[in-house]
Design brief:
about 210 residues; alpha/beta; Rossmann fold; 5-stranded parallel sheet; 8 helices; globular
Amino acid sequence: MHVAIAGNIGSGKTTLTALLSKHYKWDAHFEDVDDNPYLNDFYNDMQRWSFNLQVYFLNSRFSQILEIRESGKDVVQDRTIYEDAFIFAPNLHSMGLMTTRDFENYFSLFNLIESFIAPPDILIYLRASVPTLVSQIQQRGREYEEAIRLDYLKRLNERYEAWISTYNKGNLLIIDVNENNFKNDNEDLGKIISMIDAEIHGLFQGDKA
């Protein structure tokens, strides 16, 4: 079982990954944030470091997917390889923060990598308004995130919604983080778990059919 959690910066992906890992006894695969050598530089000078950062993420997530596949274990994953390709890189390109040459090079590399991987069994999308994202980003207090602009989060949200509206690679669950406080409310977390249980049941029923 491979469950992946998608969502904008500050939507709660890491928190939900940890909670689901604990509940289901699944292996948790987290986004490599603390050891990322480009993040600080990127937020200080996006135009200079955008391509480097996106290639780093692409390599990191491809390695993670291979590790998940080889482990044969049930896994919950914090962020997907698709988000970099369909949200973050195109957004940087449209904002003039990544050249067309670099973007085309990056996307060609992504297309090659995608041909070798399988999508998650279940994708969970955490939908959150910009005020909710800002509140949660401020709560965790990462220094390099203090420079994130509101219009940047808004642009990302728009791209997330466009991507999710056409997502057809597998089972999809959408959680409205504005209405569901799974971090602090066990009842809200229980609602998500019930949704996942129903999807898992459906997947296994499908295998038997």
